[in-house]
Specification:
- The chain has 115 residues and is an alpha/beta fold.
- It has a single domain, classed as Roll (2,3-Dihydroxybiphenyl 1,2-Dioxygenase, domain 1).
- The chain has 2 helices and 8 strands, in the order E-H-E-E-E-E-H-E-E-E.
- The protein has a 4-stranded mixed sheet, covered by helices on one side. It has a 4-stranded mixed sheet with strand order 5-8-7-6, with helices on one face.
- The longest helix is centred in the first third of the chain and has 12 residues.
- It starts with 9 loop residues before the first strand and ends with a strand.
C-alpha cells in the first residue's frame, strides 16, 4: 500500500497470544498477516497496515480504534462467535450505531455502521 503524507500509516496493538490474535482477526475481519518472528505479527486490512507486538500484559486505555461494518449485527455475532467479548452492546449515536468488543488479548475496539 502506498504511503500518504500526513495520514495515519500504521497502528500497533499489544498482544499476549499471537496465534489467537491471528486466528480471531482473520476469521472475523479477513485481515492478512505476516509473521516476523515469535514476537510480532504484521497485518493488512486492505486499507491500513499495522501489527501486534508480543507483551506479557495488556494495559487498556489510549485511542479507540473503530472499524466499519455494513452489517453491524452480523459483525457483532461473528466477533462473539470467534471468541471476542462484547464490552458495550449496540447503541445509537448521531450518524449511526456501534458496539465495542474486547479481542482475545483484551484490547478494546469498536465497530460502527451508518445502516
Amino acid at each position: 500500500m502506498p504511503q500518504q503524507n500526513d495520514r495515519i500509516d500504521y497502528i500497533e496493538f499489544p498482544a499476549t497470544d499471537l496465534p489467537a490474535t491471528k486466528a480471531f482477526y482473520t476469521a472475523v475481519f479477513g485481515w492478512k498477516f505476516t509473521d516476523y518472528g515469535p514476537d510480532y505479527l504484521a497485518f493488512e486490512d486492505g486499507q491500513m497496515s499495522g501489527g501486534f507486538a508480543k507483551v506479557t500484559e495488556i494495559v487498556r486505555g489510549g485511542p479507540l480504534v473503530i472499524l466499519y461494518s455494513s452489517a453491524l449485527e452480523q459483525t457483532r455475532a461473528t466477533v462473539e462467535g470467534k471468541g471476542g467479548r462484547i464490552a458495550k452492546e449496540i447503541f445509537a449515536f448521531p450518524g449511526g450505531r456501534r458496539f465495542h468488543f474486547l479481542d482475545p488479548n483484551g484490547n478494546e475496539l469498536a465497530v460502527w455502521s451508518d445502516k
